[in-house]
Every structure is written in structure tokens, then in C-alpha cells.
Amino acid sequence: MSALIDIAPGDFRCVADIMPVMDAAFDPAFGEAWNSGQCLGMLSITGSELLVARRNGTIVGFALYRTVFEESELLLIATHPDVQRLGVGSSLAKAVINQASNRGVKMVFLEVRQGNPALALYLRVGFLQVGQRENYYRGKSGDYFNALTLRYEITS
User: What is the Cα–Cα distance from 52 to 5, expressed in whole angstroms?
Assistant: First the structure.
């Protein structure tokens, strides 16, 4: 599958094109999706980068992350439901790790809602849970959900 997916850097011009993936990938019940203004704002910050995954020229996934010194944080990663479980998400996560490694980063962090099915993907890629934030996410219903903090240690 990965041979059919092209992962390349994106920028602010791609934000409108990633929004359909964002809307389709994130369940609105949990309030985890970002809007285009939030994405554009993050991309204006030094060290923030966007990777887009295309299949037949169409964006089917993306990853937004930022790097400060020797640490990167994977802020958002999403794949369109039509291509989930086909390797797009793991390819994007590995691409973030590879780019971070090439820049001398030692650790990549992320947070994920407890119970989010993406947790299995992160563990498969090699992230380890290193913490938990109680009642971090607030869903549309008013319910709170814990956030799990994960870390990927890059070894030289």
C-alpha cells in the first residue's frame, strides 16, 4: 500500500485541502478536530510542519507537528476513513519520526484520548505511554476524557 501513497511536505496552501480529511476522520463527539484557523495559526509558528499523504493526487491523510530543539510533538494526524487500516497513518507517523531524526530530534511526543482507536497505531509504530492527564478532553456531551501522553525515543 505504501507504494501507492505519496507523502510530501505541505504548507498553508494545503490547509483547505486537509479539512475534508479532518472532518471525516475525527468524531465530532470528542471535539478533537481543529478548524482551518487553528491549523493556519500553528503553521505560522517556527518549527511547525505539515506532511500530506496523497493517493492518486488526492490528499487522504496528513500530520501536523512542531519541533523545538531536540523534541518534536505530533499535534495532529488523520487519515480519511476510506483509507484507514491501509498503512497511511503508520506511514505518516514514521515520516514524522524520520524527519525529526534527520533534524537531530531525540524524542517525539503526542497526546491521544484514552479509548481512541489510533492508540493501537501509535503503539505499533513504537510509541510508549509515559503519562496520563485526567479529564483533559471535553466532549460535545460535556463528558471528560483522559489524555494519554506517548513518547517515541529516537536512538542514534
Answer: 10
Q: How far is CA 12 from CA 48, 49, 119, in A?
A: 11, 10, 28
**Most distant CA pair in the chain: distance in Å?**
45
Q: Which domains can be identified in the chain, with CATH numbers? A: 2-153 (3.40.630.30)
| pTM exceeding the 0.85 threshold for the entire prediction | yes
Higher pLDDT, 32 or 132: 132
Distance between CA 29 and CA 44 in Å, rounded?
28
User: 3-state SS of 121-140?
Assistant: HHHHHCCEEEEEEEEEEECC
For residues 130 and 150, the answer to whether their CB atoms sit within 8 Å is yes
Taking residues 15-33, what's their average pLDDT? 92
Name the amino acid, one letter, at 68.
V
